[in-house]
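Lecture 7, part B: from sequences to assemblies.

Below are the input chains for today's worked example.
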Amino acid sequence: MGSGELLQQVYDRLYAHFGPQHWWPAETPFEVLVGAILTQNANWKNVEKAIANLRDAGFLSLERMAELPVDLLAEYIRPSGYYNIKAGRLRNLLDHIRTVHGGDLDAFLGQPPEALREELLSIRGIGPETADSMLLYAAARPVFVVDAYTHRILSRHEIIPEEYGYSEIQELFTDNLPADTALFNEYHALLVRTGKEYCRKSNPRCDLCPLQSI
DNA sequence: CACCAGGCAAGTA
DNA sequence: TACTTGCATGGT
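Predicted structure of the full complex, as structure tokens:
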């Protein structure tokens, strides 16, 4: 069987098992950008608390957050962990949008995806996964997001070698699936759901996994 | 108590 | 280039 059919079969099983995931869990593109940084190596429930703090204080917008001192920003996002690092990273993103695009979020996100990805990766604190999450879920570009769950699920099921890195995994998807934003959106969300419920690092539930014997 | 969670950058050899 | 370490909260 070719990789294309295999990846399509994985998707079909996950979708049949879980149904649509309605990602990204955010109300605005700006909230997606913030969440993408806050969720770096963090539990999403903790990120939700951090975002709620920002929303309740009225700082969940580019204009308001830009006027917030970095040490105060850090206090609001404390529950997401690494709060000093992440406050600096949010500030780096805000500074970039303001200095390079005059604070115009739509102009920033509306660029061609190749240019936007390059800009994102040039910002201190935004790596491949964070950049691709922003491209897919904030800019609605057909970019596949690879994360720790993607690597773990595919390697445990022996679909990829354990030593595969980010770009190798990403190419597997982009070379074997149609470049469809809605498909990539749902696929990544389903992999995260699968990782949380069945393919956990400790106490996995492989006996109940919808991908068993694929 | 130990371990984990939707990474990334900086330091070391 | 290829490891290793720091960053930190809240849940299991």
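Note for the exam: Residues 41-43, 45-46, 49-50, 78-86, 202-203 of chain A lie near DNA strand C (CB under 10 Å from a C1'). Keep this in mind when comparing with the next example.
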